[in-house]
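Case study 2.
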Amino acid sequence: MSETLPLTGERTAPGIWHENYWFARHDAAYRWIVGQVPIAGRILDAGCGEGYGAELLRRAGTGPVIGLDYEDTTLRHVRRVYPQVNVVRGNLVQTPFADRTFTTLTSLQTIEHLWEQPRFVAECARILAPGGTLVLSTPNRLTFPSGNWYHTRELTAAEFAELLAPHFEITQALGLHHGARLAAWETQYGSCVDAQLSAEHDQWDDNLAALVRSTTYADFEIRPGDLDESLDLILVARPTGG
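Prediction:
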């Protein structure tokens, strides 16, 4: 269970009812990867956080999964809760891995936390094997609420693509959106994100609390087009050159 992992606001985790919307939004991207991206060979989840995504990748794949993070408490939690995920402590912009180590590299909702974003992208290119697959996601700066002090630089779709361009060919550019149920709720009550941020969770009204509790990954859609209106941005890419 994730309740032993301190909730700081830097990362989300399953099993916390008032964080459930954010967890489901993150979970939707991992589930999309599992359904749409071949998961084989050696897999790295860079910035694995609580570990739920690395565990999903492990269950779907045919090779070992490594979760990379910098924080000891988090990695101890991953070892305890997801013992079949291999964990490594390290800096995302200077990883301890050899060149061309991984077939698949995922890093979801991580790059916005990094000061050296171009260096991280270059490091991803270094440790990915030729023909390997990179999947990155990040909040869309055009729609994400301002003021998250854990984020060093949020990105638009154009900025995200520009960041990858020196080292990667983008094969898919996708946006995460609210699905029909969340959209219908917002038609009646307004933005569910704004409502969550406007008050502490113990002050939420019953409609909002019920929505947050019941939200799952299936309440989000991931699709091409309308990237500037999306909530989160997802890029799938492969390394350029040899």
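Residues 20-36 form the longest helix (17 residues).
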